Amino acid sequence: MAVNTSPESPLPVGEVSRLIGGWIDRLGAVWIEGQITQLSRRPGAGVVFLTLRDPSHDISVSVTCYRQVFDAVADVVGEGARVVVLAKPEWYAPRGQLSLRAAEIRPVGVGELLARLEQLKKSLAAEGLFAPERKKALPFLPQLIGLVCGRASAAERDVLENARHRWPAVRFEVRNVPVQGVHAVPQVVQAVKELDAMDEVDVIIVARGGGSVEDLLPFSDEQLVRAVAGCRTPVVSAIGHEPDTPLLDYVADLRASTPTDAAKKVVPDVGEELERVRMLRDRARRCAAAFVEREERGLAHALGRPAIQDPHRMLDERADHVLSLLERGRRTLGHLLDRADSELTHTHARVVALSPAATLRRGYAVLQRADGHVVRDPAEVTAGEALRARVADGELTVKVDG
């Protein structure tokens, strides 16, 4: 229940501590899971002190238990072990400290851990975090590689040496972090986020050597998986050996079987690339030579054709034909003109022969009245009428007699 207080009527520290203890006592016993980070077993002491830590968060709590409770699992439980504890929260009022009084401790077996990982794997897969379409392509030649690994570890040496052997100019931004234990997850997550925030980092490698299932558990942590899924920089997982498959392998953009394999997949080999360039250059040269040779053959074939060797031949042949047609046309036109001239002469002779002038030259005359009317009948004129008589060489006037 809420306590009414004010600046004028505050509660003493002892009363507040007592109230907190009362509220905590109502919680009762709870089952909790964590990883043992500190273990104190003083000889002859009846109480064992240990610290439980959440592997995914920077949170820990003190736990005490009677010696006989811990002795039941002492052979299989030590620092770094994951345990499930049935404990009751206790409040130590004089110092204002919270602790847990353990009544039972159970080690978390490998089978149970694997079952939990499988369940988490299905849950994350259902969210689409492992979907292939989320995978980002790695750059062909990264200029700066981010590396998250243990300090002075074999994994760091394998990645650096193999990468620099393949491409000597490659550069690394290394983050050394714990790769197992209670501090691994938060520091690996922080290192990945730091490298992802650097614009000059082209790809991130998270590397660790082999180990037991418990040693590799940090790389199956949900917090780390979600952090990698949210990265904008491609991430390569190089955890353990070939059979090891932590959940980081599924969410990463590329899985490498070992740290050495990661270096080979991220950094191209300068010798191989030079050989590939040489092969492509030779192939281009062969293609260009084949093209030129093919075009030369086509040109030689075209130049061998008669029309190219003697380009005036067709003109000469056509010129003879044109001259022949021209001569034929001239002859035909001459014949037509001669025939027309003959016909014209004949027609002209007929016209001349049949013309009135020719008739007059034979002695005939044409009589016309004064109005120009030709006289055809004697009845048309009267006695004494003057008429004009037209003869071949002129005309004269005649008078009608009675």
Radius of gyration: 62 Å
Task: Give the helix proportion (percent range).
Answer: 40-55%
Contiguous uncertain segments of 5+ residues: none
- Helix and strand content put the structural class at alpha/beta
**Overall form:** rod-shaped
Question: Helix segment count?
Answer: 12
Mean pLDDT: 87
Largest sheet, spatial ordering of strands: 1-2-3-5-4
Q: Please outline the major beta sheet.
A: 5 strands, mixed, barrel
Per DSSP E runs of 2 or more residues, the count of β-strands stands at 13
User: Distance between the terminal alpha carbons, to the nearest Å?
Assistant: 180 Å
Beta content comes to 15-25%
Briefly, what is this?
By secondary structure, this protein is α/β, with parallel strands linked by helices. The chain has helices at 13-25, 67-71, 110-126, 154-166, 184-196, 222-229, 247-251, 259-266, 270-303, 306-309, 313-354, 356-361, and strands spanning 30-40, 47-54, 59-66, 82-92, 97-107, 144-149, 171-176, 203-208, 235-239, 254-255, 366-368, 386-391, 394-399.
Please characterize this protein's 3D structure.
The protein has 402 residues and is α/β, with parallel strands linked by helices. 42% of the residues lie in helices and 22% in strands. It contains twelve helices and 13 strands. The chain has helices at residues 13-25, 67-71, 110-126, 154-166, 184-196, 222-229, 247-251, 259-266, 270-303, 306-309, 313-354, 356-361; strands spanning 30-40, 47-54, 59-66, 82-92, 97-107, 144-149, 171-176, 203-208, 235-239, 254-255, 366-368, 386-391, 394-399. The strands form three sheets. A five-stranded mixed beta barrel has the order 1-2-3-5-4. Strand 9 (235-239), helix 7 and strand 10 (254-255) form a beta-alpha-beta unit. Helix 4 runs parallel beside helix 8 (259-266). The radius of gyration is 62 Å and the shape is rod-shaped. The termini are far apart.
